[in-house]
Design a protein that fits this description.
The structure is a single chain. By secondary structure, the protein is mainly α. Helices cover about 80% and strands about 0% of the residues. Helix 1 packs antiparallel against helix 2, helix 13 runs antiparallel to helix 14 and helix 14 packs antiparallel against helix 16. About 5% of the residues have low confidence.
Length: about 425
Amino acid sequence: MRNHSKSSPWQYIPTLYFTSGVPYVIINTVSVIFYKKLGISNAQIALWTSFLYLPWVIKMFWGPIVDIYSTKRKWILYTQLAMCCCLGIVAFCLQLPNFFFISLAALTLGAFISATYDIATDGFYLLALTPEKQAFFSGIRSLFYRLAVIFGSGFLVVIAGFLEGYLNNIPLSWTIALGFSAIIFAILFIFHSLVLPFAESENSRQPQATNQIPFIKIITSYFQQEKILAILAFILLYRLGEAMLVKIASLFLLDKPELGGLGLNTSDVGLVYGTFGVVSLIFGGILGGLVIARYGLKKCILPMALALNLPDLFYVYMAYTKPSLTLVYPLVSLEQFGYGFGFTAFTVYLMYISQGEYKTSHFAISTGIMALGMMLPGIVSGYLQSSLGYPLFFVLVCFLTIPGMMTLFFIPLKSDRKN
């Protein structure tokens, strides 16, 4: 038998977090594109795909189950195998007349599986690596998660677009693209079953330790923080405009000009939004981290909020002027760069308020509320866009950025504390 304990973290940390990112981006981003190409209305797409955020909103409530039962290694392998099956089902059912709700049910199941995988992977990361290695690999895992986003929203979409033109069959093109992602998961399952170390020799002691966690105390301590209402308003509203925009952006790029869109083909959207846009977002996030490290969060948070929100005006411009593809590339890339730059301040503030005895649990609660702040606006975004049209919808998005920026003047944030 292979000695898994000798496996280097370089063998499994990059692929674990690549595996984490792929289903998230397929479920929450790529689904918007293939449903649009398969003729589903904008309102229906935005409504139902926004509900897919729900497992990431509530995953903290079944996190203890992952701790109590079995090992993180087994949870990782089982959820990878289950995700392979879910993606295969989605790919297959696109060939059926009633594909929408069958595929939506499979994506919903996949969302719960993916959220559970995230819990297990983060727990495995803490168990398998020393604190020094955890710090070293934090950037590596983030990089490979972002590469997974490029793979899903870029590579898969471009491949599907190429197949649409080559096969002249949109459902079959997406069946092949999603089937390919299912095969990738099967390969990753086999690979991880061979290389993942058995990191939990202390697993027999975990149920006792987990049962002693004062879950109610953790929740109440979070909501007893200073200025908690301002904090909650900040978490829910900081990305309100972006939450409305994110579900509609790719629909706008795909829609025909007579319907108010830019009329790009699938491959162009994969390149504009899923590749160049994501790369810009990554660089924006890196720069944001460097700026906060240099100047501190209190000095940076307002300028970074402006950097996140002001580029939404580019979509207003594109909706009114219908620019050429050569101009769409830099405009979308700049908007995504600003989003990555400004989002860094948001995540750093969530770490700022996650302090004390239960900081890990508090951060999980914050990220759950964050996901709720993305889900709720997304639910209504499609109906608003259908009612207003693209130009007025993007104008509304710009106005909805104001409440989040107003919360910055009320949240607790000490000037002498850098993050």
